[in-house]
Every structure is written in structure tokens, then in C-alpha cells.
Amino acid sequence: MLSRRHFVRLLALGGSASVLGACEATPSTPRAPSSSDRSADVLVIGAGIAGLRAAEALVASGRRVIVIEARTRVGGRILTDRSWGVPVELGASWIHGVNNNPIAARAAVAGIATKSFDYESTMYGIDGNVRASGVSAALEAQVAALVEAGRKTSPDEDEALRTALERAMTSAGLDATKRLDVEMAITESIEHEYASDASKLSANHFDDGANEKGGDSLFPGGYDQLVNVLAHGLDIRLGHVVSSIDTSADRAVVETSQGRFDARAVVVTVPLGVLKSAAITFKPGLSAAKSGAVARLGMGALSKSCFRFPSAFWPKDTGIVNLVAPADRRGQWVESLSLSAVVNLPVLMMFNAGEFARTVEAMSEAEVLASASAALAPAFPKHPEPNAVLRSSWTLDPFSGGTYSFLAVGSSLADRDALATPEGRLFFAGEACSHNDAATVHGAYASGEAAAKAVLAG
Question: What is the pTM of this model?
């Protein structure tokens, strides 16, 4: 596996400074919150990275802000599990593209340690044998070439990436073994990257907006360290499920499961999946442009199944384990991340994307163990049974509805821009609103900052 977005740079071959300066500034001390205090200058809906950054920036500029969060914790789709005595990320894991990255900058200012991640991989063929060094990178380059070939013969209207790829693979005359290798690379380099099956991705636009530069890093001490830095001192109301937002009168009114709040403006940072579910009613309704964007954009699924084994049975110095899957299990369990060098435990974090990710998250633990074990067996026939399992469940979470957004067939970056556009006293932020950095933590962070700037300019 190459670093995130490297695949996009392969296609191309065939930062941001804080607008409010709050990375270095010390936010003003907010007024001590009171559960009876339900009025503010700004209400921020959602305590994920976008919401926390928006609230932090607004407080630093002297605004009275209340953050309303449905969950009983902060962080949104960042979820660091510490039940094994070490941090295991069931949500976001990486700082993607550390150059001019605001997340990397905030971590440095806060003194939070980061660790460069080595994407060195070991690939096992359909027969379970180790493939030669460099095969994975060559396959990714081949997939990039197939994408370009498929696009060149695409009709004028948008189509599914899978359709374009099938056309290109047929023209390339791949034999059965080579086809399985290429399918593994499609899953790893595209479907896992964009959290969707190729059949749902836009052939013309799926990779638009990728803008990361530099290598990738992890937080060995847990991503929640950064969440806690951003949340410090903010007035955050947990366990408040928002049902409606009314901006039709002089002050915006937000109805929650624990009562009503009002403010001059509202910043909505809930995930795209929540907007798609229509769990929140807007009065007046969202514009046709924004509601159309919500409908057209896709909400992806990338599951993580973390297995702690009695001992490591995979190569010691590898970061990624790739397994070529048979045709009847295309795309299943093909990529695993070794956490041994990160948390000093024999843990494999196994990924799945798209519809199979949704299936995995809905499985029982016994079913997950059986399915993953069958995938591991050709390469590791004598692997031990894991003694503990941790699993993501973002597709089952009503406050997420999936992991992160993608450009589905019929959508484009114009939809991300429409989603981010303010409407009256209603402002929007989150990774799905990011033009260049969607599906990343720094994209969400920057969008929250941009929303705060728009509120202050209003």
C-alpha cells in the first residue's frame, strides 16, 4: 500500500495557514456553563473535529458558544478505544499529508507525539504464497492506468467507476490470476480509500479534490489527545439529540431531546449520513442546491475489525498485509494494518469497504471471526485464534450513518461546495463540505474554521 492519495498522484502522472490564527493563540476563557443557560451567540451542532474547531475559533473571537452533541462523548468519528490498555483507533487513524497540515501543526503546538507511518507491505497471492517485493506498487500503477483507459472511452454522461474499469480490463485481456491481483489492488487503492464499492463511485470525479502532500503519521498515544485539546474549556452539552433547527424568526431555535436552545446563528457539523437520514428537520427547508447535494453525494463505509492474537504470525517488519481474495469473495479482507509497532501488541486491524463493510459491521462476533479466519487461512494456515476483538460500527450509528463521504455517480465537487454554502443564519461544516480535503480530519478541521470565519463576517 502506498501513502494515502499516492494513487491520485499516479493518475496525475498518466496547508493551510489558519485563517483565524488560533493555532497559536490562546482562546478567551468562556463563561462558566450552566445547564439552565440555553441562549448563545452561536450554537454548534456536533462535537466532532469540525464542530470543536468552529466553536474554539468563535470563542477565541469573543462569541458565546454552546456545542450541542448527541453522543455522550466528544470526538465524532474519532474514537480511541483504550479497553486493551493501549489506544486503538476505531475511527480516524492518520494525519494524511503532514506538510502544511493543520492537524500536524496543532499536535506540534500541543506537544502531542506523532509517528511517521511506513506503508511497507507484504502481499500474498491467491495460493497463499508471498509475492515479490514491489508487486503491490506495480499493481497500483496498473490500476491507475486502467482508470485512465476506462475514462478515455467513457460516454459524455457520468458512469460508475466499475463500469469503466470493466471495459478497460476486458480490453487489457487479463487472465484469471492477473484479474484477481488487479481486483485486490482496486479494493485496496480505491475502494478502501474512498469507502465505497467501485460500482457506486463516479468514474469521472471519484478522485477529484485530493490535495494531501507529504507522508502520513499516526498518534501513538491516541487521536483523542487532539480531541481533548480542542474541546478544552468549551461549553459542550452531551446527550442532546437535535430534532429540528428553525431559523425563520429573529433568533434560531434548536430543539433537542433535552430541551430548546436559541442563538443568533447555528453551525451544523453533523455527518452527511445524518443529513441523508433527515433526522433533523430544517425550517425553512434547505435550498434545492443543498438538498440536491445531500442526495447526490455518497456516504461511505470503511469497517475496522481489530484482532488481538497471542503472538504475531505475520512478517515483523511489515506495516500492511495484503491478501488476494478469490473471485467469490472479491474485495473481502484484502488489507490489514499491523499495529505491532504502534501499540506494542500483536494486533491486526483488518479493513473492509462498501457493502461488505456494512455486512461485516452487522455480523455477530462469531461470524466476523469465521469470515476473517477464512481469508487469512491460505497465507497463514496455522494462525492462532484471536483472544480479543474490537470492531467499528459507524454504519449502524444513527449519529454517523457511515464513515465518510465520497463522490458518487452523478455528483461532483460542486456538490461539496453547495453543502458548505451558508443559508441565512445557518452555516455548515464537516469533511463532506471540504472541496480539496474531504474524508480527512484536517478537511473537517479546516471546514469548521471556514464556517467560524463566515459567522464572524456575517
Answer: 0.93
